[in-house]
Each structure stands twice: as structure tokens, then as C-alpha cells.
Amino acid sequence: MRELETIVGFEHVRVPGAADLADATEWSGLRGRADAVVLPGSPEEVAAVVAWCYAQDVPITARGAGTGWAGGAVPDGGVVLGLERLHRVRRIDPAWWRMEVDAGVTTANVARRAREAGLYYPVDPGAAESSHIGGNLATNAGGPHALKYGVTRAWALGLEVVLAPGELVTLGGPVRKDVAGYDLVSLLVGSEGTLGIITGAWLRLVPAPEAASSLAVACESSRAAAAAMERALTCGVVPAALEFLDDGAVAAAAVGAPAEVPPGGVLLLADVDGDAVQVARDHDALREALEGGDGVLAVVEHPHRADREALWRWRDGIGLAVVAQHGGKLSEDLAVPTDRLAEAIEETRAIGARHGLQACSWGHAGDGNLHSTFLLDAANPIQRARADAAAQDLFALARRLGGTVSGEHGIGRLKDGQLRHQWAPAAVAAHEAIKRALDPKGLLNPGVKRP
Ligand SMILES: Cc1cc2nc3c(=O)[nH]c(=O)nc-3n(C[C@H](O)[C@H](O)[C@H](O)COP(=O)(O)OP(=O)(O)OC[C@H]3O[C@@H](n4cnc5c(N)ncnc54)[C@H](O)[C@@H]3O)c2cc1C
């Protein structure tokens, strides 16, 4: 610790506290261990810390805000390298639709600063007020509006990264197109701190949409919701978001719910955005496509800003409302081909029943991304064991439906070893070879994102 203090200053090295050793999966009992927390104040200090760790064979766990859902920021010894002091918006170029930020700027701040410049950063993972843009990049975070706008990777023009054994490099930058080398920006995005430490990023922005509007659609079953979704996606409109919540998820947050959902039913939320004329046209086209469909019980319109904002605040609170039911949950983030979504929702419930657990699901329907969830009392070891077994069935379900075990949260520690059941051996070998090439000593977040 004394040697690290000479790099970052005495007050920026400390003994780890409970909050440094867990992330949003803490309810699952996942808690790590670490020898020191180091908070560098500049990219150069990050490089010097990594160089010191690499020379001393000390593991390094990069930490953003610790809102991850996969245990990726949970350390396994060594140094927790927190990026929170790197929180500067370095520059914003409104005319050129781009922004350069430190890795520790929060997602909400990126969006706010873009909005103040008349621009839009559309990636909106649910913990945006806390999560760092560096964490979003490291997990390739998604969120409701990924349907129209894509996930974080689509918005990364360039990265400033510290690579082993402690080299600060810039990949890409303000340039909008660059195919000169292998796409190392995309490789680093989603690498969960296992290939390098992101210290800064150039982000692409777009002009802010002038208007937006939302619809809430109650359907009597997941099959009816799937049919409604198909109509929504074939009516000539590109929805900005298309979310679903089953009856269990809606019931958990009954206060403020935008529509009633019957037992076994599903709620769809659809968003459109653009210029005011287009939004009015798209809103009407979507409503017509959804109304009167078989099994559609109600279409509730939310055209006004205050209503929309209340709707999305309610939606953002679903995860916490579900946890509040029994004090804990096990939630996986499968993604399946969109035409298999109804099966995945029904199977989640059936898997829960088989293991004696109450189940519900919600998620980003337009992207086929489910948060398949089992409710449990985290302090009850029998329920925990059942939930772990149920999660294995969920992973098998994702594979059987031609999907993936993680649509947006990553492998982290919680899905250790799952990728090798999903990928061919040669693809797994390529994954491992990349890790060896960029982290020959295996010190960058050891034990995370292992295939
Ligand atoms: C209520 C709630 C709602 C959520 N909703 C969504 C959602 O809709 N979509 C979604 O995708 N996710 C969602 N998440 C998960 C989480 O917010 C995202 O994964 C987010 O991107 C994590 O950012 P963070 O700064 O908290 O990263 P952390 O949790 O601190 O770290 C996550 C991983 O990234 C690595 N890492 C962090 N910073 C860096 C860096 N600078 N360089 C290299 N590696 C780094 C860590 O080592 C770790 O492996 C939600 C979480 C919560 C609690």
C-alpha cells in the first residue's frame, strides 16, 4: 500500500470496505476479497498502478460503480482499481456529434451533458444515475432503447485504455470511420475488465429527438403479447423501445402500473421518438397495429412527457420491486431469437415451478432479452440451491432456443464456465488465446469472463 501511495497519493489508497467487495449481485452471497483499494486520479496514474501490479504479480479488478449484475467487479484478491476519480467530461463537440469523457463519468451525466448540447446519447441501462460509462463499455451495456439505437458498442468511437503491462494507448478517437486494424475497440467493449482498463472514451452522439410518446398494452397471455409484438414490428414503425413485463413483475410494482394484467398475462410498453410529426404518425400506426388484436385487453396511451417519464421511472424500479417481495432474487439475462420469446417466458415460469420457486420475467422484448427471475429469501440455503439449479435449466433453455446465456450483463463470475456449452471448442480456444495475448500473466480480473 505504501508503494501504491507514492503513485496516487496517501489519501487515495485504503483498506477495502464491504462495499468494495460486492456488486449488485450481493444478495446472492457473492462477496470477494482484496488487499487494497486504489483510486487513481489520471489515466497516467492508472497506467502506473497497472505497471506496479503487473511487476509484482498482483491481480487487478477494475471497478466502476459496482452496479453490475454478473459479479464482474467482485475482486478475488489484489487491488481494486476504482475509476471514480476520473469523472471529467473532457470535451463535447455539438457540431460534430461527439463527446470525450473520462471512464468514471456516470451514464446519466453523459446523457445530461449531451442533452444540454441539443444531442442524444441513447443507451439507458437501468442504473444510469450510478453506473459509469467505463462500466457500460466494459459490459457493453444495453437497456430499453437498444432496440432502435443499439447497445453501448454502437456509440464507442474510440477508447483510451491501459493495456498490460501498464501501457496507456488510444484506440480510435474522434474519427467516425476506421477499419485500419483489427477492431480492438469492439474487442475491449464487453471485455469486463479482463483485457485492459478503460480510462476514457470518445462517444458518438446524435441530434436529440424532438418528441416521444409511449403506449402500454395489456395482453391476456405471452402468446398474445408475442403476436402483438409481431404486429408492432411489421407496421412500418421502428419503436424506440419495446419492453415486456409478465403478471408477476407487474404485481410486484402494482402501485403506478400503467395497466392491469390478468393472471398469466403480459404487459408490453412501446416507445416512439423522432420529430413531432413522425411521432404522431408512428404513435397512431402502433396503436392501430396493437388495438383489437387477439388477446389484447387494453391499449393505454401516454403521449405526454410527464406521463411518459412516470411510466419509465416505474419501469426502472421493477428489479427492486421484485427483490422486495422476498428479500432476494436470482435473475438471469438470457437473450433468445425474438420469435422464441413467448416460449422463453412460459418456460421460465415452468422451470420455477419445477424447482418450487416463484418465477417472473420482464425485459427488452424487442431484443428478445429476458430478465428471467426466481424470487427467494437469500438467507435460505435450500431456496438458494434450488435457484442455482433452476439457473442451469435457464441456460440450457437459452441454448435450446438458439439464444445466449447473457444478452447484456456479461459472464462475470456468476456464469463462470457457461460459454463453453454455447460455443464450439475452436471458438472457446480463440477466446482463451485473446486473453493470453492481452493479459499473459492473467492478472486482469482473474476468474471473470472465463468461457
Ligand atoms: C437497477 C439496475 C438496472 C440495470 N439495468 C441494466 C440494463 O437495463 N441493461 C444493462 O445492460 N445493464 C443493466 N444493469 C447492470 C449494470 O448497471 C451495468 O452492467 C453497468 O454497465 C455496470 O456499470 P458499473 O459502472 O456499475 O460497472 P461495475 O459493476 O463496477 O463493473 C462491471 C464490470 O466492468 C468492469 N469495469 C468497470 N469499469 C471498468 C473500466 N473502466 N475498465 C475496464 N473494466 C471496467 C468491472 O471489472 C466488471 O467486470 C442494471 C443494474 C441495476 C442495479
Characterization of the model:
The chain has 451 residues and is an alpha+beta fold. It folds into four domains: 2-82, Uridine Diphospho-n-acetylenolpyruvylglucosamine Reductase, domain 2 (2-Layer Sandwich), CATH 3.30.43; 89-207, Uridine Diphospho-n-acetylenolpyruvylglucosamine Reductase, domain 3 (2-Layer Sandwich); 211-316, Alpha-Beta Plaits, CATH 3.30.70.2190; 325-408, Alpha-Beta Plaits, CATH 3.30.70.2740. The chain has helices spanning 2-8, 43-56, 107-116, 133-139, 146-149, 184-188, 222-233, 247-252, 276-290, 305-316, 318-326, 341-354, 381-400, 419-422, 425-438; strands spanning 13-14, 36-38, 60-63, 79-82, 89-93, 98-102, 119-120, 156-163, 167-172, 197-204, 206-207, 211-219, 241-246, 266-274, 296-302, 328-332, 359-364, 369-376. A seven-stranded antiparallel beta sheet has the order 15-12-14-13-17-18-16. A five-stranded antiparallel beta sheet has the order 5-6-10-8-9. A hairpin with a 4-residue loop joins strand 5 (89-93) and strand 6. Helix 7 (222-233) packs antiparallel against helix 12 (341-354) and helix 12 runs antiparallel to helix 13. The longest helix has 20 residues, at 381-400. The relative contact order is 0.12. The site of flavin-adenine dinucleotide has 37 residues, from strand 3, helix 4 and strand 10.
